[in-house]
Design goal:
This protein is α/β, with parallel strands linked by helices. The protein has two domains: 173 residues, Aspartate Aminotransferase, domain 1 (Alpha-Beta Complex), CATH 3.90.1150; 216 residues, Type I PLP-dependent aspartate aminotransferase-like (Major domain) (Aspartate Aminotransferase, domain 2, 3-Layer(aba) Sandwich).
């Protein structure tokens, strides 16, 4: 059986497959560069594991309070080593990236402090955490104010606006690396470093926190390498490698991480408690695989960008620009386009391929959201998935793929659904 035949059996027409192969032929050099980054990052992770003397004893389960959980403590040391931080908090008790960010913010802000975002509006689920949208238990309720400086129309930093926004109350600056549900460019580590240096020159004592979700292992450097005080992320995204069943991380300066730990557990307890309940081995394995998994996801994103850009759809990033996260945004301009794309991703899944996703009202969002995710780990967005809010400009956000070949199938199936519904036309 030929490759074309198996794709045909999976529902990809010869026309769509041939178009995909034409696009793929132009990406050989870019894919080779991605593999080089993955190799570097793989060695970085192995070095961190070797330096911290990871052993099979560290995979043992703990229960109860979790005192003397050697696996948990060693995993945190591995994360600190790999990301070049003084300390780390890597816990299954951190239920999501949003939760990890909430813990990091709550642990390091006090009543009367001000939080500043110099890169525009944060991701939707943080709006209620901060109090931009009213919610019980928000930072606003605890007396933390919020200030925001939008990016300039060309995507650059508004340095004059940031200078004016920084004041005696500014305690913490949050920098979202990825675009979230926006169509702005993702920030490179280099640009994040430029922003942090500017802020620190004005107010050296301010804490600079980077929401690192979707960006881990895309480059050979991470935000802590360029001056960030904390980086925060989710284990069901990049660093979990598709094996982590839950969890989040906070890595950075010891004082910042300790404050977050006191908020996660209780004052006086901090990092000393928190049993891992047998998931530690999956967290180690996922972190080990993460550089390779991220490389496959990145290839899928670039493939999608070129597939849809050549059909005339706006894409962010575009088909040629450098990549700094695994997310690919495609703007269709209609709800039907978003829905068809997500249904194609679902149809390509190894799990629940027979399910048809529909938009629904999700907690934390201000519009119905459609999500496609036929994943082994529910909610994992390093596995092949796509989602988007059903509101203008009607953009879909595609990410993940445990292997490049699965990501490729997902992109082709998404296009197949659009073609079948008459939403786009492939010109030979």
């Amino acid at each position: 059986m030929t490759v074309e035949n198996i794709y045909r059996e999976l529902g990809v027409s010869d026309q769509v497959y041939a178009y995909g192969e034409r696009i793929l032929a132009s990406l050989k050099e870019r894919f080779e560069a991605i593999d080089q980054v993955a190799e570097y990052n793989q060695m970085k992770v192995i070095k961190a594991m070797q330096e911290n003397r990871v052993s099979d004893i560290h995979f043992a389960a703990t229960t109860g309070y979790g005192y003397n959980d050697l696996g948990r403590d060693t995993l945190e040391s591995v994360y600190a080593s790999a990301f070049h931080g003084e300390a780390a908090l890597v816990r299954p008790q951190l239920t999501s990236g949003t939760h990890a960010l909430c813990v990091a913010l709550s642990g390091n802000l006090r009543p009367g402090d001000e939080l500043l975002s110099p890169v525009g509006k944060p991701y939707d689920t943080l709006e209620e955490v901060i109090g931009i949208r009213e919610s019980v238990g928000s930072l606003k309720e605890y007396g933390v104010s919020y200030r925001q400086v939008d990016l300039l129309p060309d995507g650059s930093f508004d340095f004059d606006g940031i200078r004016r926004a920084l004041n005696e109350k500014t305690k913490l600056v949050t920098i979202q690396r990825s675009k979230g549900y926006a169509t702005r460019p993702t920030l490179s580590v280099e640009r994040i470093g430029e922003l942090i240096r500017f802020i620190k020159e004005i107010k050296p004592e301010v804490i600079c926190m980077v929401d690192n979700c979707y960006g881990e292992f895309v480059e050979t450097v991470e935000p802590l390498d360029v001056g960030a005080d904390m980086i925060v992320g989710s284990l069901i995204k990049n660093p979990g490698g598709g094996l982590a069943p839950i969890g989040g991380y906070i890595v950075g300066k010891k004082e910042c991480v300790d404050r977050a730990a006191y908020r996660l557990t209780a004052p006086g307890l901090g990092k000393e408690v928190g049993a891992t309940l047998g998931v530690t081995q999956s967290l180690f394995q996922g972190f080990f695989l993460a550089p390779t998994v991220v490389a496959g996801a990145l290839k899928g994103a670039i493939f999608a960008a070129n597939i849809y850009e050549n059909l005339g759809f706006p894409v962010v990033p575009d088909g040629t620009e450098s990549r700094h996260d695994i997310i690919q945004a495609v703007t269709f301009g209609t709800p039907e386009g978003v829905i068809a794309f997500c249904q194609g991703i679902q149809a390509a899944a190894p799990v629940d391929s027979f399910v048809t996703p529909e938009p629904w009202d999700m907690p934390g969002y201000d519009a119905p959201v459609i999500m496609a995710a036929g994943a082994f780990v529910q909610g994992s967005s390093i596995e092949l998935s796509a989602d988007g809010p059903i509101k203008p400009p009607y953009a879909v956000y595609f990410q993940g793929g445990l292997t490049w070949y699965h990501a490729k199938l997902g992109v082709l199936m998404s296009l197949q659904k659009l073609v079948e519904q008459g939403l786009t036309v492939i010109k030979n």
